[in-house]
Amino acid sequence: MIKKTAIWVSMVFITCAIHAQETKEIEGGYFLEGVKDIKSGFQLSSNFTFKFFFTQNGIDRYGSGRWELDKNTVIFSGRLQPARSYKLLSARRVNDNFITVKFTDDNPTIVKNIECNLFTARGRQKLFTNAEGIVKFNKFEVDSIQIRSQVFPDHPFTFICTNKIQNNFEFAFEKSVYEVFFDNFILLYANNMLAGRHPLLKGNQFRFVKSSE
C-alpha cells in the first residue's frame, strides 16, 4: 500500500513538473504575422494573466484576462462584456421627412461607415453613416435600429424605439467599446506559435509568432 502511494505521488509530481515546464515555455509575447497594416498580439505572463492589443488605422484596442493551457490548446477568458457599447444621447421628433441617426465622438474616424439597419412596418432599410457620422432614412415609424461599426465589429447594438413619433436619434460610444472581451477563446500552440482565429478579424488561419526577446 505504501509503495503504491509513493508511486502515485511520484506520478503526480512528474505530471505537474511537465505541465509547469510546458507553461514556462509558452510564456512571452506573440505577434500577428502576415496581415498588412495591422499590429496585434498577446502577452502571456507567468501568473496566467494575459494582455491583448490591436492597432489599425490609428485606432488602439485592448483586452486582458487569464489564460490556461490544456495540452496544446491555450484558452483565453476575461471579464463579462457590458450589456451595451453605445449610449443614447437624444431621441426626439423633428419636423422633416427623414429618420436621422447620428453618432458623436471626438475621433471622426470611428463615426463614419457605421452600418445602420432600420426596421419598420415596411421592412428593413440598410445604410452607412457619412464622414460626419450621420445617416438619413425615408421616414416611417421606427421599430428598432441595429448598429454595427466596422471599427468595433465585436460590439453590435440594437436600439428598440418605444416612442413611435421620434425620428431623430443621436448616439455616442461607451468607453468599453475599445475593449476586446474573451470568453473561452481558443488558440493552438506549437513551435513557438499560436494559431487559429483572430478575436477581431474574419478567418481562422492567423498566426501569432513568439518574440525571441
Describe this protein's structure:
The structure is a single chain. With 213 residues, the protein is mainly beta. The protein folds into two domains: 2-76 and 181-210, Lipocalin, CATH 2.40.128; 86-178, Immunoglobulins (Immunoglobulin-like, Sandwich), CATH 2.60.40. Helices cover 12% and strands 47% of the residues. The protein is built from one helix and 16 strands. It has one helix at residues 2-26; strands spanning 28-33, 38-44, 49-56, 59-70, 73-77, 86-92, 98-104, 115-120, 123-128, 134-138, 142-148, 157-160, 168-173, 185-190, 193-196, 206-210. Strands 1-2-3-4-5-14-15-16 form an eight-stranded antiparallel β-barrel.
Helix content: 10-25%
Coarse morphology: elongated
Write out the strand line-up for the largest beta sheet, numbering strands in chain order.
Answer: 1-2-3-4-5-14-15-16
- Strand percentage: over 45%
Secondary-structure element series: HEEEEEEEEEEEEEEEE
Secondary-structure topology with pairs:
Elements (H helix, E strand, L loop, with lengths): L1 H25 L1 E6 L4 E7 L4 E8 L2 E12 L2 E5 L8 E7 L5 E7 L10 E6 L2 E6 L5 E5 L3 E7 L8 E4 L7 E6 L11 E6 L2 E4 L9 E5 L3
Parallel strand pairs: 7-13
Antiparallel strand pairs: 1-2, 1-16, 2-3, 3-4, 4-5, 5-14, 6-13, 7-10, 8-9, 8-11, 11-12, 14-15, 15-16
